[in-house]
Design brief:
The complex is a heterodimer.
Chain A lengths: L2 H27 L3 H15 L3 H12 L7 H13 L14 H36 L5 H14 L2 H15 L19 H38 L2 H9 L3 H38 L5 H10 L3 H29 L9
Chain B lengths: L2 H12 L1 H23 L30 H37 L1 H16 L2 H11 L5 H10 L3 H14 L3 H8 L4 H37 L10 H11 L9 H29 L6
Helix pairs in contact in B: 2-3, 2-11, 3-4, 3-6, 3-7, 3-9, 4-7, 9-10, 9-11, 10-11
The chains are: A mainly alpha, B mainly alpha.
Family (chain A): Belongs to the binding-protein-dependent transport system permease family.
Pfam families (chain A): BPD_transp_1 (PF00528)
Main location (chain A): membrane
Chain lengths: 333, 284
């Protein structure tokens, strides 16, 4: 892969990030002025200060003053972003948006990456088996499973799991990422507790994505099976096992690696629904809270960070794919 | 009736998936159009009649407020289906116009339009939809559909553009250009009919996607304008009534979920079947 291609890709990603910043800025500008007025009034009565003083402090806190001209507002906003300042939350008192994101992001990344790895590994193995043993019952069973899971939205699967396993049987917790009794840190009780709380959200993602992985892998593996080198290898007497794991699976996996990062972005976007079902304190849960309670600063901060994560995931998928498969030239497409 | 049309119906009829999908979709459409005319839904709260089990008077029992669950589903189907219909229509128009212009005109227009398209593809749409729904008060299905479509046209536009790139060098299009026909005429009168099968499949997929997104938004309580929309029913079942705490409320929770799942499955079956019926290369 050429350096020029890499730089071009990175450049496009940077422009997209900048446009995402502009987008969040305009969303913030749609904040009704009354929301800030109300807040200022509450603030003034709470702290016993004048309304102007409260208004001044609040506009400093959220780094946005609707009374300024638009370019000053934009400069102020972008300046704040360059300092990594996303302002204060409107509903969580005295907590900055940065702190909320710093607390929420690890949970989302944890659940998403664990479920992605599990469903990817199971999915590609199922898919490879489907391609290899085409006459067995495995193929129709998984095809039906894939149709069923793609017709029921994942948050609904989440609700059903919650009702059955958390409420009906009481096997799993109803909300949160860990119990307050365990001490956060690198110790066994905490890790087990985190896994216990993450189990249902992870299961939801895994159940709803395995089918698609398996079908994509099957399609890819069937193509690989038709290649000359596979025929040559089987004539050479390479055992079926080695053929499947070393020859077919490795090559059929390549295009799926790209989908991995894209899927990560997709799941990140869909996380508000799953995390709200399980009241799991990740990014999506806070986007849900912020939109329901009209916390404009928190909304735009979370949207910006989510967008940047998705843009980075897409960039990573392009670069990884070009690295893995030398036939892909980055300049194209 | 033309021969092509008869062939088309025969292929659908022979294809088990497409046929069953079509039947289920037809039942839902019938339910949405005529259902509300046949029975009237009384949404007044009746505490004595709460959580009734299914009976002849109440086919699926009653909800937490003593209202008939089945009738709510029927009334909700009208709202759900109109969101799907309008959103798919808007998505198709936006996707076709942007993709076709981009592919047909080419040059700088193409670069700019594709950059915008890629932007819409990379910014995660669901969180944006949530925020837009929080900022704009959604009051009716048409407005809801427009907001949904505004964030879902991008993949279609990209696909249409690549179709256009191969179509535009075909002889009949070149002939049109030599005759000096205007671009809008070529796009809508010559190219559109050639893409009809492709657009028909995308119409169903777009409707399906829009319905999932709308149900998701309603479930988060971000578009609370209709209490009988299936998404709203799920939300009410989960948050207000203890559908998840109270086993008596299970039917109220499960019914909209079943409807949604069935509808989605019918869409997938029907569009798969359509693809086989309209694309002769896929017929085996």
């Amino acid at each position: 892969m050429s350096l020029k291609g890499v730089l071009k890709r990175i450049g496009v990603s940077l422009i997209t990030v900048f446009l995402a910043m502009l987008l969040t800025f305009f969303l913030l500008r749609m904040t009704p002025g009354s929301a800030i007025d109300t807040w200022a009034r509450d603030f003034a009565t709470q702290r016993g200060m004048s309304l102007e003083e409260a208004y001044r402090q609040i506009t400093a806190m959220i780094n946005y003053n609707p009374k300024e001209p638009i370019f000053t507002q934009l400069g102020r906003y972008l300046g704040g972003l360059l300092h990594g300042n996303l302002g204060m939350s409107m509903i969580y008192q005295n907590v900055s948006v940065n702190e909320i994101i710093a607390n929420a992001l690890p949970w989302t990344l944890f659940v998403l990456s664990v479920s992605l790895v599990i469903s990817f590994l199971i999915g590609i193995n199922l898919g490879a088996m489907m391609a290899f043993k085409r006459k067995t019952v495995l193929d129709p069973i998984i095809s039906i499973y894939a149709i069923l899971t793609s017709s029921v939205p994942n948050f609904i699967v989440g609700i059903l799991l919650l009702v059955i396993f958390a409420f009906q049987f009481g096997w799993f917790p109803v909300n949160g990422a860990y119990d307050p009794i365990v001490e956060p840190g690198f110790n066994l009780p905490f890790i087990l507790n985190v896994l216990y709380h993450g189990a249902l959200p992870i299961l939801t993602y895994v159940i709803t994505t395995i089918g698609t992985w398996a079908l994509t892998m099957k399609g890819s593996a069937v193509n690989v099976l038709g290649e000359d080198y596979i025929v040559a290898a089987s004539i050479r007497g390479v055992s079926e096992r080695t053929l499947m794991s070393r020859y077919v699976k490795r090559n059929a996996m390549l295009p799926l690696i790209t989908t991995l990062a894209v899927n990560f972005g997709f799941m990140l976007g869909g996380s508000p629904l799953i995390e709200n079902v399980f009241s799991y304190p990740g990014m999506g849960y806070y986007i849900g809270q912020a939109t329901q309670q009209r916390d404009y600063t928190l909304m735009q901060g979370l949207l910006l960070v989510t967008s940047i994560a998705v843009i980075l995931a897409n960039l990573a998928s392009d670069l990884i794919y070009a690295k893995l498969d030398p036939r892909v030239k980055l300049e194209e497409g | 009736m033309s021969q092509g049309f008869i062939d088309f119906w025969q292929t659908i009829y022979r294809n088990k998936k497409a046929f069953s999908g079509m039947i289920i979709l037809a039942i839902f459409i019938f339910m949405a159009i005529f259902g509300p005319m046949m029975a009237s839904l009384d949404m007044t709260v009746n505490f004595d009649g709460r959580y009734k089990s299914p009976s002849f008077a109440h086919w699926l029992g009653t909800d937490y407020g003593g209202r008939d669950t089945f009738l709510q589903l029927v009334y909700g189907s009208r709202d759900v289906l109109s969101i799907g219909l309008f959103a798919a229509l808007f998505t198709l128009v936006l996707g076709f116009v942007i993709g076709a212009v981009s592919g047909f005109v080419g040059g700088k227009t193409d670069t700019v339009l594709m950059f915008i398209t890629n932007l819409f593809l990379t910014v995660p749409s669901f969180p944006v939809l949530m925020i837009v729904a929080a900022l704009v008060q959604i009051k009716n299905p048409v407005m809801f559909s427009f907001i949904l479509a505004a964030w879902s046209w991008a993949p279609l536009a990209r696909a249409i553009r690549s179709q256009l790139l191969s179509l535009k060098n075909r002889e009949f299009i070149i002939a049109c250009r030599i005759m000096g026909l205007k671009t809008p005429y070529i796009l809508f009168r010559e190219i559109l009919p050639n893409l009809t099968p492709y657009l028909a499949i995308n119409f169903i997929m777009a409707a399906q996607g829009a319905i999932v997104a709308s149900v998701g938004l309603m479930m988060l309580g971000l578009a609370p304008y209709s209490p009988t929309n299936w998404g709203m029913m799920i939300q009410l079942a989960v948050q207000n009534t203890g559908g998840i705490f109270n086993p008596k409320g299970y039917i109220y929770l499960i019914s909209p979920i079943m409807c949604l799942g069935l509808f989605q499955m019918a869409c997938i079956f029907f569009s798969n079947g359509l693809e086989e019926a309209l694309n002769p290369r896929l017929r085996s």
